[in-house]
Amino acid sequence: MNGSCLNFKNPIRDAISRIRFAPFSNNLIISSWDSSLRLYNADKSELRVEVPTEAALLDCCFESESVAFSAGSDGSVCRYDMHVGTSVTIGNHGDLATCTEYSDETCLLITAGWDKKIMFWDSRATKSLGCLNNLGVEVESLSLSGFNLMVAVRSSVYIYDLRNCHESVQAKESIMDIQLKCVRSTHNFEGFVAGSTDGRVALEYLGQSKSKNEGYAFRCHPKGKNGRQHLVAVNDIAFSPSNDSVFVTGDNEGFATTWDARSKRRLVELPRYPNSVASLSYNQDGQLLAVASSYTYQEANEREEPPQIFIHKMDDINIRSASASSSKDT
């Protein structure tokens, strides 16, 4: 598995909050605490555009190849035209806006913030179409799969149907006895994976899943030589588009590890990164994995090396071995 570091003529000046590959190309958007949204062409190794804003950017997502959104520390929700490098504020949360997802099925933008609301936006207009304000606590993470919206709150995950968002259609309460950090859906919505602040990962299957496996949880790192648990936050999780059993986790000590959900085994642990792994993203065919190495402002003694982004070409041998082990388990 080969990796290369992206080069920026003007380095990213503060922590990276999120990276995401475009729907159909190897363009990568990057949101950062330095208040800029960047679009990077991974094929040509060049920065396409950098759009400055007024606030630190805490999340970002694509609507299409040329349109993106961000969530800002001032509560702003912004829409970007990446062709011309312009942005417009479409609305605001009452506190920090922390999460953003775009639904192709409903053409809605979904955002969450510290005002304890999930808001729904018509991306073509500067108005909110409604909100969920009965959560009572801040949302830690959002994830979309089709019409299903997954919401990580404290130690629980709630699932909403975007066609009727008044009540959650399913709840997985206290899937771990500690705060969740991120939640990510499987591509076929058989279930989801959630990462915690103490280094654990839980996989949950939903409804009448075709899988014969039941949900389970595990620690990303074994006990140390002194017998103590390795407690470090799992910052992000990404599923491979080329194999719905394979996912990668990234933690606050700079480790990224690929796993096979069906065979319940670790596939590859990448060499440790200079900083925490802040965000992960596969491209559309799963052949590239982007890893953002950046401090995350979670711990007082975090390493503060300059933020970097690494692109890995996924080793086909590892993917085939995962497929083979998955077929044996079915």
TrEMBL record:
<dbReference type="InterPro" id="IPR015943">
    <property type="entry name" value="WD40/YVTN_repeat-like_dom_sf"/>
</dbReference>
<dbReference type="Pfam" id="PF00400">
    <property type="entry name" value="WD40"/>
</dbReference>
<keyword id="KW-0853">WD repeat</keyword>
<feature type="repeat" description="WD">
    <location>
        <begin position="227"/>
        <end position="269"/>
    </location>
</feature>
<protein>
    <submittedName>
        <fullName>Mitotic checkpoint protein BUB3.3</fullName>
    </submittedName>
</protein>
<dbReference type="InterPro" id="IPR001680">
    <property type="entry name" value="WD40_rpt"/>
</dbReference>
<dbReference type="InterPro" id="IPR036322">
    <property type="entry name" value="WD40_repeat_dom_sf"/>
</dbReference>
<feature type="repeat" description="WD">
    <location>
        <begin position="90"/>
        <end position="122"/>
    </location>
</feature>
<keyword id="KW-0677">Repeat</keyword>
